[in-house]
Write a structure and sequence with these properties.
Two copies of one chain form a homodimer. By secondary structure, chain A is of the alpha/beta class. Chain A has ten helices and twelve strands. At the A-B interface, β2, α9 and α10 of A face β2, α9 and α10 of B.
Chain lengths: ~280, ~280
């Protein structure tokens, strides 16, 4: 069988699968896990591929390590979304992290992933992880100011349950809960497959954060050719990283390393012009 | 209608098209040009997407400008393949280029592209371009030693008419026809979609050239997440570029620029380990 997703009725991306491992429907979305030949078990939400056993490390390493290596003291980490556990797994590789709060709106996604998609095994067992079942937008609205050193937004596309994770109001609260020298990062979609959406996210982030630095890189499973993750701070340079922290985590990783931190921030000539 | 290609019966990539602009069959392959919604007119050879009106600049800028900016004196350029004209167009942006010989095996590809896929319009009219209809493998076997400052191999995948463009014997002749301080570059497939093929190409190039430096970047239309182009020299560092030459061409480009030259050579942690 072929599992396919379609972008804007113009591009189609399909993975051959040997079977459906899990199918469910929550209050928020349909959830499916397929056994694919190319990427092993793959999670799809409302028919859109999210992550898979193989090929997921690009995305999860890039959403976690640049922020964690750029934050001067990444002790208190907040992850909004990320119910598959992959981002928490990467965050918890850093011994500086004392607590990682993961706020996922869809309990069924977490349940299905814990059972059938073993990305976050080590994370789910880590005593530093606190899982909150709830709405990330409400969570940051109610969280105390400056209560996190790193805030990570690991949501799906801005339709359905993740729509609120791309709003300026949400970003303002993220900025407020972020400590003065902290680092905020969000997945910021594909500058190639959907340039307008990428630029729109950049504009909203720039309206809130003094410093906004997009990183780009490959992310298999999205059929998008290039993905982006955007680092934001209250003024610090997110390309200044703690080299010894990066060096310590590098041997555990498959994509990210010190030199990629800066290389990922080198955008195309066209994006440079568009972003000024 | 959907035009689709399939990789190893595991991944499928499709583009919606409003019509078939051209269909033909040469002695070497089937040739089709579709009017797609996402990328405009798109060329497919034996059912595999090659290039398109939109999104082609990533590939063509990366196969041309890093080599041309790294070669000390890029006066005599050889392009093997590249019948769509996109690579020749990029090469001829450099005023240092006195001649560009394009050797394409399939006259019907060139004819169809000249008529229906306007990538190389400026190139086809440039008096510095010499088009040779013939086999690139035979051409380099017979060409005099040290007769080119830049050799560019712009072939399709290593099946069908392009198979010979990935052989060690062919690379040896490319090395021989390359001037002492010249730069050779070949498209070297996707390290993500087909890691084994990428590594195999690296091994063969390393058997021939003292210095082998792969660059990576996005290439829409291939559904591969990341593409690679590998620079080879007889010893010079292909990351040392002529900054003023790059600066002059940059305003004309959409992807490549000085900083990307080096940033593109920063590979994933995994590729670094595999390549040693």
């Amino acid at each position: 069988m072929w599992c396919e997703e379609t972008f804007a009725d113009r591009v189609r991306y399909g993975l051959r699968a040997s079977r459906v491992v899990y199918e469910g429907r929550s209050a928020y979305q349909t959830i499916a896990i397929y056994e694919t030949l190319q990427y092993g078990r793959v999670l799809a939400l409302d028919g859109v591929f999210q992550t898979g056993e193989r090929g997921e490390h690009f995305y999860h390493e890039m959403i976690a390590h640049p922020a964690l290596c750029a934050a001067p003291s990444p002790e208190r980490v907040l992850v909004i979304g990320g119910g598959d556990g992959g981002t928490a797994r990467e965050v918890l590789r850093h011994p500086e992290v004392r607590s990682c709060v993961l706020v996922e709106i869809d309990g069924l996604v977490m349940e299905a992933c814990r059972e059938h998609l073993p990305l976050g095994r080590a994370a789910w067992r880590d005593p530093r992880l606190e899982v909150v079942l709830g709405d990330g937008v409400a969570y940051v609205r109610e969280a105390p100011s400056s209560s996190f050193d790193v805030v990570i937004v690991d949501g799906s596309d801005p339709v359905g349950p993740s729509e609120g994770l791309f709003g300026e109001g949400f970003y303002r609260h993220c900025s407020r809960v972020l400590a003065g020298r902290g680092v905020f990062v969000t997945q910021s979609e594909s500058p190639i497959l959907d340039l307008e959406l990428f630029l729109d996210i950049q504009r909203r982030l720039r309206a809130v954060f003094p410093r906004v630095t997009p990183l780009v890189g490959p992310a298999p499973l999205y059929g998008a050719e290039q993905w982006s993750w955007t680092l934001c701070t209250h003024g610090g340079d997110p390309l200044e990283l703690d080299v010894s922290r990066a060096a310590r985590v590098e041997p555990l990783l498959r994509y990210y390393h010190r030199d990629l931190h800066r290389a990922s921030a080198v955008l195309s000539a066209e994006l440079r012009r568009l972003l000024g």
